[in-house]
Amino acid sequence: MILETRRDLIQVSGQVEDAEDGHPRKIVEVTRIEELDLSPFVITEISSGAPLAQPLRLAPFISEDQQSIQLHHEDLDIDVFAATRTELLKELRGQLDMLWTEYALEDDKNLSAPAQTLKKRLLALVKPD
Predict the structure, then answer these.
(1) Phi and psi (nearest 5°) for 100?
(2) Same domain (yes/no): 80, 42
């Protein structure tokens, strides 16, 4: 759960009890309280062995229901979410690896027109050999 304090956003992890309206009523068995870091991720490679010509900056944001942290990049078809920043980075790395393997490394004849466009976008980000 993400809460706003007078100074910063904090993230509280634990067991949440909902009220009858579906909103959180209270948090019990708190396991962690920490400031919420929404600073951008700076990605320097899409996948192992595929360094970027320019770092890619992806800014996380809080989901509408304020229960997770999300990243979205429409041009690269990236949409990931997780409960914590560490988990979000892991999900992002996994999606980047998948995009590289399934699109950038795939033969064009096996890709639809939109997939070929995504492949071109991915390849354009990588440093030339």
Answers:
(1) -65, -45
(2) yes
